[in-house]
């Protein structure tokens, strides 16, 4: 339930719009710019009904739109608001996933809808608003890179987008968990014949699948020829592999990965009572629902990987071949090209590292890594606080820590 100022409020778009503005919009000649402006205003009307997270996202979107339309771009201000938009999308997705039942019952729900465009429930509208907010970040980043040759500001936005994608994956897991809990909390159904024994089992989490399809659309928005988009894609794939690796470990060994090797090799303890058994059953069902939609995202990511991860010369030759065979009836939703052996090896190493918890932050290991911001806005990195008398020892330790000294232990290493 959504509560604002002590009152229950449904985030229905119709309740937040002015009838006067609606009539004016219908009478207005819908030029592209005017139509886009109306969409922006409608999105902001809707976001205001989602509480504090929606309000903060609205403010960031409005400021970013104003900065993008300005002749002189303030790079710092634009970057700051793009970061706020990316962060806000993750928070709104978390809110929407937790309020699926409430949001899906409001608005004009279409049970037979096959896409978000056809479904007019508040849940579907919220996901569409998040999709347009993500596109706004991409547009803002294009403006940012045009006006600022430095990559530091755009790197900050890339990092926040990756954090948003990771947060959205957690929202997928949360939706699956909520679906499992709701299903198992229902009173037991009467027993059926053996032929219908599986009829009572829930097949999917609708809310988790919807959020997953939104993330799939995020991957599809990224352009193969844009270097910044390639960094975003790499970051998205890394956090996806992090999640997939954790679930792959669970599905392979029947328990979650532990920090110690001793705990990992021991079989999981048996549940002590009915409460613990019910808790484990709910977790198992939630993971089964989650992995079904994770495969959807993974399949899309692997289909697009050749566009972003193959060597540049291979991508250009493949795009030329694809363009000759393309038509309006068969848009290039996924690459028909094969993933290069180098890119495939890199992805496989990344998955193994994410699954078993290897140190994926090793700069000399050819795996995908989560992008880290090179700086903070309006700040520079501080040097380490070390006592003067300990500087020499500290320096030696840091050099060997960063570079490694394995070669010193090998007789043939020189």
UniProtKB/TrEMBL annotation:
Bias (Basic residues) ranges: 19-30
Organism the protein comes from: Pyrenophora tritici-repentis
Domain of life: Eukaryota
Sequence segments annotated as region (Disordered): 1-37, 307-335
Ranges annotated as biased composition (Basic and acidic residues): 1-10
Protein's UniProt name: Uncharacterized protein
Ranges of compositional bias, category Polar residues: 309-333
């Amino acid at each position: 339930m959504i509560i604002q100022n002590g009152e229950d409020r449904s985030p229905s778009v119709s309740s937040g719009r002015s009838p006067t503005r609606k009539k004016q919009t219908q009478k207005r000649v819908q030029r592209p710019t005017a139509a886009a402006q109306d969409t922006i205003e409608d999105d902001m009307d809707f976001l205001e009904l989602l509480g504090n997270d929606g309000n903060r996202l609205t403010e960031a979107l409005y400021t970013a739109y104003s900065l993008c339309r300005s002749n002189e771009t303030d790079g710092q201000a634009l970057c700051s608001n793009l970061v706020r938009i990316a962060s806000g999308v993750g928070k709104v997705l978390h809110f929407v996933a937790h309020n699926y039942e409430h949001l899906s019952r409001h608005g004009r729900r279409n049970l037979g809808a096959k896409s978000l465009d056809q479904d007019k429930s508040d849940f579907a509208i919220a996901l569409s608003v998040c999709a347009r907010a993500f596109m706004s970040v991409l547009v803002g980043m294009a403006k940012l890179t045009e006006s600022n040759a430095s990559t530091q500001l755009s790197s900050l936005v890339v990092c926040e987008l990756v954090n948003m994608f990771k947060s959205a994956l957690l929202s997928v897991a949360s939706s699956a968990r909520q679906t499992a809990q709701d299903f198992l909390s229902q009173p037991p159904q009467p027993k059926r014949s053996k032929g219908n024994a599986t009829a009572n089992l829930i097949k999917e989490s609708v809310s988790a699948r919807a959020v997953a399809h939104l993330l799939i659309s995020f991957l599809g928005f990224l352009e193969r020829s844009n270097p910044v988009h390639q960094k975003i894609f790499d970051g998205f794939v890394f956090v996806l592999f992090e999640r997939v690796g954790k679930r792959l470990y669970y599905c392979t060994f029947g328990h979650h990965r532990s920090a110690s090797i001793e705990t990992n090799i021991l079989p999981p303890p048996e549940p002590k009572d009915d409460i613990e058994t019910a808790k484990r059953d709910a977790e198992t069902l939630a993971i089964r629902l989650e992995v079904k939609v994770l495969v959807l995202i993974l399949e899309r990511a692997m289909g697009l990987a050749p566009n972003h991860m193959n060597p540049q010369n291979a991508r250009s030759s493949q795009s030329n071949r694809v363009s000759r065979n393309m038509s309006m009836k068969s848009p290039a939703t996924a690459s028909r090209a094969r993933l290069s052996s180098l890119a495939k090896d890199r992805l496989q190493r990344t998955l193994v590292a994410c699954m078993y918890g290897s140190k994926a932050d090793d700069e000399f290991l050819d795996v995908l890594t989560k992008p880290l911001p090179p700086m903070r806005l309006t700040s520079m990195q501080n040097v380490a606080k070390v006592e003067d008398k300990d500087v020499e020892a500290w320096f030696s330790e840091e050099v060997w820590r960063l570079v490694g000294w394995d070669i010193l232990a090998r007789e043939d290493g020189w």
